[in-house]
Amino acid sequence: MTQEYHVTSLVVHAAPGQLAKVTADIDALAGADIHAITDEGKFIITLEGATQGAILDNVEAINALSGVLSSSLVYHQVEPLEEKSEETP
Fold first, then answer.
1. pLDDT tens-digit map of 7-60
2. Helix (H, G, I), strand (E, B), or coil: what is residue 12?
3. Helix (H, G, I), strand (E, B) or coil at 76
């Protein structure tokens, strides 16, 4: 089975009064990074993982957070990871 690397970006819209809580909850997710937050409650987030399922689990977790109004998938990329053989240093 080929190993893969997945990266996804999202725009998440949260209620302005819930920014601190949503920030803490997203920071607690493995593979999630927040790159920007606006005063209006919009977050730019990337998710990284080894499987599409891991990415989808995090998207679902974000959508279920108290204070999150919506999320929009912006980008998703999958790259195969090269397996090292005995001949590859």
1. 999 999 999 999 999 999 999 999 999 999 999 999 999 999 999 999 999 999
2. strand
3. strand
Of the CA atoms within 13 Å of residue 60, those in its CB half-sphere come to 6
Backbone angles phi, psi at 26, to 5 degrees: -70, -40
User: Under 8 Å CB-to-CB from 22, ≥6 apart: which residues?
Assistant: 12, 14, 41, 43, 65, 67, 68
Distance (Å, rounded) from C-alpha 14 to C-alpha 87? 50
Q: What is the DSSP string of 14-60?
A: E-GGGHHHHHHHHHTSTTEEEEEE-TTSEEEEEEEESSHHHHHHHHH
End-to-end Cα spacing for the chain: 21
